[in-house]
Fold this protein.
Amino acid sequence: MNAPTQGWVVIAGLGPGDEALITSQVRDALAQATDVVGYIPYVRRIAPRDGLTLHESDNRVELDRAAHALDMAAQGRRVVVVSSGDPGVFAMASALFEALEAGPEAWRELDIQVLPGITAMLAAAARIGAPLGHDFCAINLSDNLKPWALIETRLRAAGGAGFAMAFYNPRSKSRPHQFARALEILREECGGDTLISFARAVSTEEERIVTVTLDEATPDMADMRTVVIVGNRDTRRVGRFVYTPRSAE
Ligand code: SAH
């Protein structure tokens, strides 16, 4: 009889889009996997092969997806849960640990590893120059999992404290007015001449990056494939680049 195979779960980030930005750790995990689990567009980035089952799921079922991955690992399968960018940034790593917390005690002994990826804000910042070169924060503008009032509080606090900021999930069809409101708050807190960059589909063929001032920014400059980066009051242009100095007064 064969020894029972040891299952595992790897929660992996696929980076912003370009295949060259996938780490070799993640490539190795994918090469050894029996199952890949994730949101449809991310799973479609994985080349099919013999012995690999691809499980595509809808966007809003993260917890079910995570429990499914843990259950398969408990049965001896080698499972990669894929996210875009980094799995710890508004993505599957937290969902997996939530499922682990809610699930059977035995799951806690499983071999579970998180493999980092290049998150959208860092890929975007690198294309723009160095807009996140001093203190910065990242805020998810989606109110799927938190109230909009909390998002406004955090925008005011971060803008008022002089952080540069990266915004994920800035705008969707289901909540068209909120991003306009976010821009209003930012103008009040940071001043209308602060630079704002809209980086869409970074590292793919559809990449488009535009930098304007907050006064010039309009809500339609962002969509769900855009990460938005707002500088602090020292953020400036040099040639075709935008950078934030490393020091502040
Ligand atoms: N885990 C991902 C983020 C998932 S949330 C990461 O670390 O990047 C989804 C949001 O990420 C999108 O709404 C968008 O704001 C941003 N995003 C993901 N890929 C992107 C890309 N290639 N270019 C610009 N923004 C991107």
About this structure: Residues 16-17, 83-86, 89-91, 119-120, 124, 168-170, 199-203, 224-227 surround S-adenosyl-L-homocysteine (CB under 6 Å). The radius of gyration is 20 Å. The chain is about 30% helix and 25% strand. The chain has a mean pLDDT of 95.
